[in-house]
Amino acid sequence: MKKLLFILLLPLILLTQSAAIKLDQAEEAGAKIKAIYIYNFTKYIEWPTEYKDGNFVIGVYGTNMPLLNELNKMATSKMVGAQKMEIKNISSSAEASQCHIIYILWHKLFGSRK
């Protein structure tokens, strides 16, 4: 009886796993697109001289680990002008004042999209 139940439930288990993997892949693909967009945005701004010293800081307000991971990967190989990129996960306005660019997650401002 246990074998029969296992055999009947196996496709459901595999389907659930597959759906979770596809969702993760979609989230990672979206994060990669956002990271590229944020980086490319830096190319079209003429930054004041006082902002060209030290690292170029990109702040992410809210928690989005796939986006933070993509931005951190990008920071290891890309530069903004002559500045190294630094990625910060920020949670207050005091931290935001130290950033060149701030990416604000929608749900942090307006709550859940439900």
Put the structure in a nutshell:
The chain has helices at 2-43, 65-77, 93-96, 106-110; strands at 56-61, 79-80, 83-90, 101-104.
Give the topology, please:
Blueprint: H1 2-43, E1 56-61, H2 65-77, E2 79-80, E3 83-90, H3 93-96, E4 101-104, H4 106-110
Parallel strand pairs: 1-3, 1-4
Antiparallel strand pairs: 2-3
Helix pairs in contact: 1-2
- End-to-end distance, in Å? 41 Å
Structural class, from secondary structure content? alpha/beta
The SSE order reads: HEHEEHEH
How many helices in DSSP terms? 4
**Secondary structure tally: strands:** 4
Oligomer, anyone? single chain
What's the main sheet like? Answer: 4 strands, mixed
- Beta-strand residue percentage: 15-25%
Strands side by side in the biggest sheet: 2-3-1-4
Percentage of residues assigned to helices: 55-70%
User: What Rg, in angstroms, do the CA atoms define?
Assistant: 20 Å
Low-confidence stretches: 1-10, 17-23
What would the average pLDDT be, to the nearest integer? 77
Structurally, the number of domains stands at: 1
3D shape: globular
Structure description:
With 114 residues, the protein is α/β, with parallel strands linked by helices. It has one domain. The protein is 56% helix and 18% strand. It contains 4 helices and 4 strands, in the order αβαββαβα. The chain has helices spanning 2-43, 65-77, 93-96, 106-110, and strands at residues 56-61, 79-80, 83-90, 101-104. Strands 2-3-1-4 form a 4-stranded mixed beta sheet. Strand 2 (79-80) and strand 3 (83-90) form a beta hairpin. Helix 1 (2-43) packs across helix 2. The radius of gyration is 20 Å and the shape is globular. Mean pLDDT is 77; it is low at 1-10 and 17-23.
